[in-house]
Fold this sequence. Notes:
Elements: H1 7-27, H2 41-45, H3 57-68, H4 90-102, H5 113-129, E1 143-147, H6 150-165, H7 169-173, E2 179-184, H8 189-198, E3 205-208, H9 219-231, E4 235-242, H10 254-264, E5 267-271, E6 296-299, H11 301-304, E7 312-316, H12 319-326, H13 336-340, H14 359-394, E8 398-400, E9 408-413, H15 417-429, E10 436-440, E11 443-449, H16 457-476
Parallel strand pairs: 2-3, 2-4, 4-5, 5-6
Antiparallel strand pairs: 1-7, 6-7, 8-9, 9-11, 10-11
Helix pairs in contact: 4-14, 5-14, 6-8, 6-12, 9-10, 14-16, 15-16
The structure holds pyridoxal-5'-phosphate.
Pyridoxal-5'-phosphate binds next to helix 6.
Amino acid sequence: MAEHMDPDEFRRAGYAVVDWIADYWTTLGKRPVTSQDPPGAVAAALPASPPEHGEPVEAVLADLDTLITPRLTHWQHPGFFGYFPANTSGPSVLGDLVSSGLGVQGMLWATGPACTELETVMLDWLAGIMDLPERFRSTGPGGGVIQDSASSATLVATLGALHRASGGRWRAVGIDRRYRAYTSTQGHSSIEKAARIAGLGEDGVRPIEVDPETLAMRPAALRAAIEADRAAGDVPAIVVATVGTTSTTAVDPLPEIGAICAEYGVWLHVDAAYAGAAAVCPELRWSHAGLELADSYCFDPHKWLLTGFDCDAFWVADRGELIEALTVMPEFLRNAATESGAVIDYRDWQVPLGRRFRALKLWFVLRWYGVEGLRAHIRTGVALADRFARRVAADDRFELAAPHPFSLVCFRLRAGDEASAALLDRVNGTGRVHLTHTRVGGRYTLRLAVGSPLTAEEHVDEAWELLASAASDVVAG
Ligand SMILES: *Cc1c(COP(=O)(O)O)cnc(C)c1O
């Protein structure tokens, strides 16, 4: 017979796990940011099969220290500057722990009323503190929902757009015409993936050219592509505009793009996965100008707003369209609350049926930090990036490769691609920092993205000193 962990044993082991996490955070800055072990090292260190007899939690904790943490990329490390940040925080972890302990499935309102209602209120709270357009609030025809990721948000938006563009026929007969999606050449790869899954095919995505200076979508090029497709008998279904592109944080001009979408009846989805969080600060809201023209919008609190993965906040202007596109009602889910029409069933707003109680971690984060605390976090990131960018600009071996309105700085060595790539290898090889790269205008470019709550001036300064001294070696040959 299985021996379950009783509440007292859980309490004891649980405190030990919390202690372990707190120790991990305390010692994080002293660890190498990434592992230097070759592929297969972790798998080779693990036994071939699970134990026949159960073991205490302490045995697993000991193995975490020897097998797992030395072979991780430490995303919460103060020297982690790669990709975009994927923040977590104490309150987020605790909220998630409560969610795990409750083990509630929030697919329907009826399967956990508070799970649904807290989520609706949290998304309204977020819309309020970011000053998002009224149309996204649950008090009107729109509303918000938590998706696992921006990728899922784009997929769901694409399905809503196909439903609209086909006059509802998509639901019954699938893809029976050539529907088209549009995004800039800088749009995220998840847009192409969504198009493939939705049946448009990757050729169904039209890459729209960008301004070479700002790297933002050119509205005239969007209009030309839409008109060419219409002339060929294709149906423009969705435009995905980006606030804060992944490569360089370029901001597409929403007012012009929104006007074009309105003119042709095309769904506008705005992907602000990373940079959306900036809108909690009034001085950064310029990036969201024109958002009132969007049919849907998303950003990831799990990137830059201190809420652990997974948490993407997704809003639609017309929830009716989305629900119509995605609802399926088998007999075993029928219930009086759903039939009354008075409740939200979030399963109709996403691809899976089941869903975790993710609003809890958001609630814990919003209450712990307060709006003031969230703003301070964003402002710290922006200020640190700016501090770093000033160092880059002042050293004539280096150049900035793009504007840096948020907390990402793109830069390179004037000596060229090979030197820049060698520089990245060198600084990452120190184990003190971790940066990643992109290409801007075809040229190899380093990216430094600030966002860990542990990152302070000293860490950004250390990154610069490592780069500046490695640059001497690299440029000298
Ligand atoms: C990170 C990112 C995504 C993907 O985010 P997930 O939440 O991991 O799916 C999509 N779009 C942009 C602009 C991003 O920066």
